[in-house]
Amino acid sequence: MLMSSLMKRVMTILVCVSLVSGYSRAAWAGVVSTGQMLQQQAAIDKTSLVSVLEREEVRQRLVELGVDPEQAKLRIAALDDEQVGEIQANMEALPAGGGVLEVVVAVLVVLVILDLVGVTNVFPFIHSAGR
Predict the structure, then answer these.
(1) Domain segments of the chain: what residues?
(2) Alpha-carbon gap, residue 99 to 93, rounded angstroms
């Protein structure tokens, strides 16, 4: 009888401990659409492109080429997701620790294409078909 009373107490304590330790806060989850994920990824990609423009050597090279770095930031903000992905793909193909010139060239190529299409007017010497 003493053993069963002791066993009941031990079991009661174990059950209480397992209930208390097993308690967790409710987690809230929701469905995220593909569009929301793509928008978030595009925002991250644009932020990484703008951070490249913050580097001093990139800014100096843009100025040497006659492009205002602040104007380039505005143009990057105006890029659509496909264009940002294209630039990101070019950047990822570059060797690590170098390739600043290639990044600048990639950005300039995108800006020239946008000028040719008539979306932007960064370079006054480029005339699009619509102008």
Answers:
(1) 34-117
(2) 10
